[in-house]
Amino acid sequence: AFTRSLSWIPKVIFESLSYNDVVDSDMRSRVIQIVDDVLLPKSLSTTARTAGVAMIISNFEKDANAVRWLSKFLAERAEAQAALTSYLDARDLSRTFKAGSVEFLTHNVEAEEKLDALVTKFVPLNDVKKDEILHRIHEHKDKTIFKLMASIADANHTVTTRATAMDELPKRVNAVGAAASTWMKSLVRRVSMGSAFNFDVINHCAMLAQECARENEWVTSSLFLEIVKFCVAAFPTVGQGNAGECFKTMTEFFSECRGLEGKSKKEAEENDIVSMLGKILATIAPAASAVDVSELSKKEKAAMEKNDTMLQDDLLRMCTKDGTPEQARDAVNVMAAMVSKGGKGDEIAAFKPLMKALTAPQRLAIDNDRSVAVLASLAALAGSAPLAFEGGGGGSSEGRGVKAIRFAYESVLMGKRGGSILNMSTDEPEDDGAGAPKKSAKAAKAMEKQLATDRVVGAIELLVAHIRSLPIYAPNTNANISMDEGDVTSSSHVRGVFRALVGILEDDGLPPSNRDQALCNDAKSKAAIRKAAGVGLIQLCEPMKRRGEAFLDTTGFHALSKVFVDADVEVRQAAVSNLSLMLTGQGSFAKIAPNLRFLAMVVMAADMEGVGGGKSDVNGGAANIGKTSVAARAAALQCTKILRNTCDASLIQCKAQGPRGEQMFEQRIKPMVMPEFALPWALHLLAFRKETPIVKEGSNASANNAAFKQLKRRLKWLLEPLVQSLGNQADNISFLLRMTELIASSFECTDYNTGDDETTLKGSEGTAKLATVTRAAREVLLKFVKTDAHLTTFPGTIRIPGNLFKKREGAKFDVAKVDYAKERKRVASMADDDDMDMVGYENAEVEPTGSFVIDDSRDESRDMPSDMLSSPVPSKKTKTSKRRKTDWGLSPISSPIRPAAPVAKVNVSINRLDTSSSQGENSFSKPVVGKGKKGKKGATGKRKKAAAGADEDAFEFGDENTENNTKKAATGSGKKPKAMGGGRTSVRRSAVR
Questions:
Q1: What is the Cα–Cα distance from 863 to 854, expressed in whole angstroms?
Q2: What's the pLDDT tens digit per position in 235-293?
Q3: By CB neighbour count within 10 A (0-12 exposed, 13-18 middle, 19+ buried), where does 387 fall?
Q4: Contact 572/625 with Cβ under 8 angstroms?
Q5: Which residue ranges make up each domain of the chain?
Q6: pTM of the full structure
Q7: Phi and psi dihedrals of 179, rounded to 5?
Q8: In what ranges is there compositional bias, type Polar residues (predicted)?
């Protein structure tokens, strides 16, 4: 009866969680109240509420919209609890210092900032006296208030705890005012666990799943386990609740399932019981390992130790005997969590039996059917327990982990060696697979093909996990330049892995090994390998470890872009999802400012409009990925906003250091974190795409050109976040237009040589389409122009990456002769190419409050050598522009006043920096006024020679026509011209990778 007549009610309620506080805060509060208090009220018993949750969830499809919104709601609640805990900890820390001391004031301000962040993101307070109310709550003398707040910040609290907080907290802050009382009630409602989804219900689901399995009700048991897995994904700390009761139940259930035989074992496998248990245990094990056992009795401690020993034995067998690769990976993660409290010695000792078993010669062999699960176990071990993986080797040839890496790279991936490269040992041989029934020739062939694909994927995952576990890359240390073949921590090994993964993408998913190419030649196998290689490269380029800038050159960057327009939906979704995580610093990526070329990569995430789930040649044959594509654009917006916060904070810090700090900001920090500098990378990327059309300037062919429309749509994925991140005061449009027109009129794409005397990127191919790409960018930008102020000439410094573009022969760096007024009218009369203006950003209403950590030791010159173009300094000061106070890094710091005087030509100083991956110097150079013989005005012959020669020490571009025009512009204003470039700059070249 429930299924037929009432199942629509929970569906509508959960979908209504899509209302956010910006749209309707009251509506969201009412929906949350219905979910927590009305749908399954606390008056029902725990068993009744658990059964109710099971009935509701069973009526939803796995990927139903209602389930997604419920999952998002629970995740936000977990974040709110973490934010509240962070505030309370900061407040408690401030109270440990003497009132009025510097330490007290510092930590007290930090605590209030965290409270304000909590209010801004999770529990809005709409009152004109918001700051005063929050300050009075923060300074309240009633300690019970903060104890009650701490009780609901723990996900393991009961329904009674929530009711107490709901009753007491509003009363205790009532003296602050009615607004404070109302807000406190809202805080309890937003942060605390409701009656439907809380620790008691989750723990009850775990127990019912075990009981149903004992009665051979495997389908029902699977349903309860799905609920547990769904909830612990948001609240992994439930493993710590009630002395680890949920974890204990799951481990007992896991051991029981591992001992099943016959029909029961088959039914458990059909319902994926063991795999779900493994994932649940891997999720809650870190919290369970933190349980304080000091208060347990000796009997309870002995039982827990026995339970842990049995669990480790089962997990070890799963890794080496009969577990799937996914189960083996989860098993290692559980084991790693259980020994995480110990030191280095404990970790190595705990995993020594596993490492010895996994690296036995008979297991690390090509012809071993268990090799895929073994590689998956080793990959998980390298990521979660790197000390144990290295064992006694530490990168040397003695370590078992080193031998495993050599097997994965040399034997599996490259096919350079035989089936096993490990020396035979005295280990007893394993009879893996003994007694298994023989398969037909057809089935054996299919299994061989699948095994080859999975083996290559497993090897890639192991190599990626191992490199990510290595210390931060430091190019000047001896450890990173070792050429020892057995040293798997050296830069030569890392570079080899990068090249192998790039080669896989260039070969459309074919593995490098000749042995596996014939077996992995079908579309499904190649897609799986492309996915592993693409995702692996993205993860290897994580900003914190600095290896992306060093080992992924321009050719590799273009090869990586192919995976973002893959024809396989699963491959493209995986790549775009990982890019979104990198841009926002989530998942396995640290919150470090990403390299701007990866922000530019978002242009490849755009779907083709009106194709649905299909593909289109004008989008490179990319499969449409729907919400994943829109989420990538939202991630670009969030990344842009955080980069602006980072830029503002860095500017303030650099100004405090004086002129040298300002100089460091202009030359080193701004090119790393100012998001507008991602545009040249996007233009370069699109210019080399084969689906990018060639549309001549002034031609009307673009109006009905589907490829040109898709090109503009791609550019929107980057340009719209850049402009929208500044709101109505979008003062970066003129800067972006100027950068676009300079590239179009004065630059061409450079050839890129890999170092093997083979030019893999011919600049002429990109230059042929560069005008079309810049025209599309101009039309997209002009769509954002609302007032004439958006077209005001920008006087700041524009940097063009010297490893992407070079000065066009004969170019004088003229400002493009574009009649923007006419062009603006033409663009305005054009119909919108798509409906993206109507599509909202998920979470775009929440202004990011944090900032990225800047890796200021990163050598930006490796990936962004800069040609610098400076506009002449104006002669007359105009009114102060209504722009952001810190100017977000566009104009020179010492000149906050923005002139409106346009100039026709500008003086240019070009600095072509080192593009080698092995250089560790920070070599962003400012334009220097010419001095000495080489900087002499009129040295045209020397300039041309320097421009043409790659090994010249210095060159300058100071064309007389340009200088004369600059003089005229300045004298017309009654001032002498200032030299903003034209000086000599050093040129540094070294061997390209």
A1: 16
A2: 999 877 777 789 989 999 999 998 888 899 999 999 999 999 999 999 998 888 877 76
A3: middle
A4: yes
A5: 2-191, 198-322, 346-425+442-540, 633-986
A6: 0.79
A7: -65, -40
A8: 914-925
